[in-house]
Amino acid sequence: MPAHVSTIRCGHHPATQPGGHRTGSGDGIDALGLPVMNTSDNLSEDHPIARWHRILRDRDMSGLNALLDEQAVFHSPVVHTPQVGKARVLGYLTAAAVVLATPSFRYVRQIVGPQDALLEFVTELEGVQVNGIDLIRWNEAGRIIDFKVMVRPLRAIQAVQHSMAEALQRMASGGAA
To answer: What is the pTM of this model?
Structure first.
């Protein structure tokens, strides 16, 4: 294993399982045939990725403010220009959490290095199967400085674009995402 990779895990995000319980057979495979992922393995409670998983699991975006650096950058799968600054990144990640973290949302693979991580996810949106990655980098203080989302296939990108535009519009109008 390369020296820069500290953990590799596969399976479900605990948000899709009430109380974070494992589902499926005893061999670590869920009802859909995917490996079950325990997102807390080898990560301290204050690790940026453990905190990110907790935010999604609890559906409590209030913890995101403390996790983001003031100069954080968000790279959208549908907006060409990077979104710079904590307030913008907070808005985009809040909308994305509402749009993408449907009951079918789960992380299926996670690769965590010393200051970056790749989290592969699957979900269903508007009847379309979405497969994507969150590529996250944090600084020495444990604050996220860069968050890139990539999505496939094309129909999924179109569904994400449509749903995100609606969520961001609701937020801009003063409503919840």
So the answer is: 0.77
